[in-house]
Amino acid sequence: MVGAVTHASDTADSASPQTPAVGPDMTPQQYGVGARFTLSVYDSDYVRIILGALEQADRTGLTLETNDISTFVGGTEQRVLEFLRDVIGAAAASGAHISAAILLSRGCPGELACALPAGVPALGAAPVSLAPAGVRARAHWSLYPLLDGGSEGDHMSPIYAAIEDAKTAGIYSGSDHFATRLDGDLAAVLQTAANGWIGVGGVVQHVTTHLTVSLNSPTQIAD
Amino acid sequence: MVGAVTHASDTADSASPQTPAVGPDMTPQQYGVGARFTLSVYDSDYVRIILGALEQADRTGLTLETNDISTFVGGTEQRVLEFLRDVIGAAAASGAHISAAILLSRGCPGELACALPAGVPALGAAPVSLAPAGVRARAHWSLYPLLDGGSEGDHMSPIYAAIEDAKTAGIYSGSDHFATRLDGDLAAVLQTAANGWIGVGGVVQHVTTHLTVSLNSPTQIAD
C-alpha cells in the first residue's frame, strides 16, 4: 500500500515507539483492520439515496471517516462487513443501479511502512457470518497476499480454500482476467470475500482484497 | 489474485506447455498486462453517457471484454492508460458526477496460478506519458507488490520513488488509511499510478494497483 510517511521517527526498518506488543490481544485498530468503500448510484437522486442508506446503517463500534473519494470504516471484521452489507443493501432497495468499490485491509496499520514489528506472526480472525441482505449482487473479487510484513508460509492453500468455499456456497460464478466472479445474495458475496481475506490473513501479515459489486444492473444476467 | 483453475495440467508448480520463453520479447498479453474498470455515472441518463464515452475512445490495439460488473482492457501500458483517460474524460465532459474503479495488473497472466515460470525476472516497461485530459480528478491509490511470482529484491524503493514523483508532479495530496490521495488533471493522476505500478513491476513480477477516481463531485474541495 502507498501512503505518506507522517512521522519522522517512522522508518521502514524500526518499529515506532508506539507500536504495541503484537499478539492475539491486538485490537483490530492496532492491526489495521478496516475497509474503504465508494458507493455509486446511477441515478440523479443519488444524494438522497446515499444519505438515506448511511442513515439506516448501524455504525455502533465503528470509526467512519469520509471524503469525496471514498469512506474509511474501522472496526472488527464482523462489524465492518455488517455495515457494508447494510449501506449497500439500503441503497439497492431504492431500485437504482448501484456499484460499490470495496477495499478490505489487514496487517498494515501504518502508511508507507506497515509499522508492525518485523517477524510478527500473521493474525487471522474468526470468520464473519452475515445474515442475508435480500438483494442479489454480482462482483469481481481480487485477493492480494502482499510482500510487506512477511509470510508464515503457504499462502496459496487459503486462496484455494476460499475458492472452494465460494463454490460450496453456490456463489462462485467463474473467472475473468484478474478477478473471480461471485453471484448471489449481497451478504453471501461479502462474506465469501471477507473470509477469504481473513483466511489468507492467518498466513500472511499484510493482506488486502478488492470487490467491485454491481446490483440492479439493467444488463445483469437473468436467473 | 483469485481465479479458476481452468486446465488440469496447470498447477502452481509447473509451467504450462504453452508458456512462452520469458524475456524482453514477451508481449503485454503474454505477461498479463491489462486493466479492469467500472465507470459509474451518478445520473439517471447514465446509459447514454457511458455508451457515448465508449464511442469516443480510440480502442486501436486493445482487447476489450465487458460484462455487467466491469470491463477488461488488454494491451500495452500506454494504450490501456490512454483508453482509460479517454473514456473517463469523455464521461466527465457530460458534467455528471463520475466515479471510476480501476485495477491495473501485470505479471500474472494465468488465473489462480500465475502461469509464468518460477524465477523469471520481473519485467518492467517504459513509463507511460499521457497528454492532459482537461478535467480535474481526485483519487485514492493503492499499490500492491504481491507474494506470487517472486521478487528481485527491494520493492520499497520504487514505491518511495512513486510517491516522490507524485509530489514533484504536484498531485500528491496526502494519505488516508490504506491509500494515497492524488489530485490533479485526470491524465496526471492515471500516469502517476501507472508509472508507480510499472516501476515496482521492474522488481516484483506480480504487481497490481487500484485507483478509485472521483470527478465532478459536488463535495469536491474547491481550488
Automatic annotation (TrEMBL), chains A, B:
Domain Thiamin/hydroxymethyl pyrimidine-binding YkoF putative: start-end pairs: 33-111, 137-220
Top-level taxon in the UniProt lineage: Bacteria
Cited InterPro entries: MTH1187/YkoF-like (IPR029756), Thiamin/HMP-bd_put_YkoF (IPR011522)
Residue ranges with Polar residues bias: 8-19
Region Disordered, annotated ranges: 1-27
Identification of the protein by name: Thiamin/hydroxymethyl pyrimidine-binding YkoF putative domain-containing protein
Organism: Leucobacter chromiireducens subsp. chromiireducens
